[in-house]
Specification:
two-stranded antiparallel sheet; 229 residues; 70% helix; single chain
């Protein structure tokens, strides 16, 4: 893998082709479970592990699977990985697992995971497939964590509530009371608040992209103007 391809895959996964901000895939768990930072982080890490692992396995077996059955095979691989993650979370993070509930097994139905297996992992060697899965999963998880943090901050005035669910009893005092004596903003914690906050994040990304494109055009135009002069 060349450095160029690594940078390109990283840019696509984290920004230019982000599953949540650009492709707008996997929005059901993204919006439903992102009411706190810890919940979002738990689901985000499970998604990263699922995409990276399934991409790697699909790439390994890509030359042995007949085209007629490739999609059922890919779904079976993803379901097996998610089942292993679900059982592990139930064993090691039981309380967090109970909170995330049905959204852990629903990772199987996340469109962008199957999409990456079909469109990328099945057509590329193991290293590129694993890297793509890691970065696509990380891009999705980052949006999930930022969304969860914003909703928790606006809704409760805190960050890292119930951190002990993921990091153990030693993290019981990690909760940050950013706004003391905050009465809360209920809308931010409800489903409409998730839609509104995600919409604002998408709008912010579009504004940043437009400014970056304008800056690049200006930079490209300057040498041409100097040559003409």
């Amino acid at each position: 893998m060349s450095d160029t391809s690594l940078r390109e895959l990283a840019g696509n996964g984290l920004w230019h082709n982000n599953p949540a901000l650009v492709q707008l895939l996997g929005l059901c768990p993204l919006l439903a479970i992102s009411n706190t930072t810890v919940n979002a982080l738990g689901l985000g890490l499970a998604t990263i592990l699922t995409v990276a692992t399934s991409n790697t396995i699909v790439s390994v077996i890509r030359n042995w699977v007949r085209p007629e059955v490739r999609l059922p095979v890919f779904v079976l691989i993803i379901a097996s990985v998610v089942t292993a993650i679900e059982l592990s979370m139930n064993a090691w993070f039981h309380e967090l697992y109970n909170i995330l509930g049905i959204f852990i097994p629903l990772i199987v139905t996340n469109c962008f995971i199957l999409g990456r297996a079909e469109s990328f992992a099945a057509r590329n060697p193991v290293g590129r497939a694993a890297w793509d899965g890691l970065l696509m999963g990380t891009g999705f998880a980052l949006v999930l964590v930022v969304l969860g943090s914003l909703r928790e901050l606006l809704g409760q005035g805190t960050l890292l509530t119930q951190a002990e669910l993921m990091f153990g009893e030693a993290a019981a005092g990690w909760t940050l009371e950013v706004v003391p004596e905050y009465r809360g903003f209920l809308l931010a914690l409800l489903p409409p608040g998730a839609f509104i906050t995600l919409g604002l994040m998408i709008a912010a990304k579009n504004v940043i992209d437009a400014r970056m494109e304008k800056r690049e055009r200006r930079a490209a135009a300057e040498p041409a103007a100097e040559t003409a002069g």
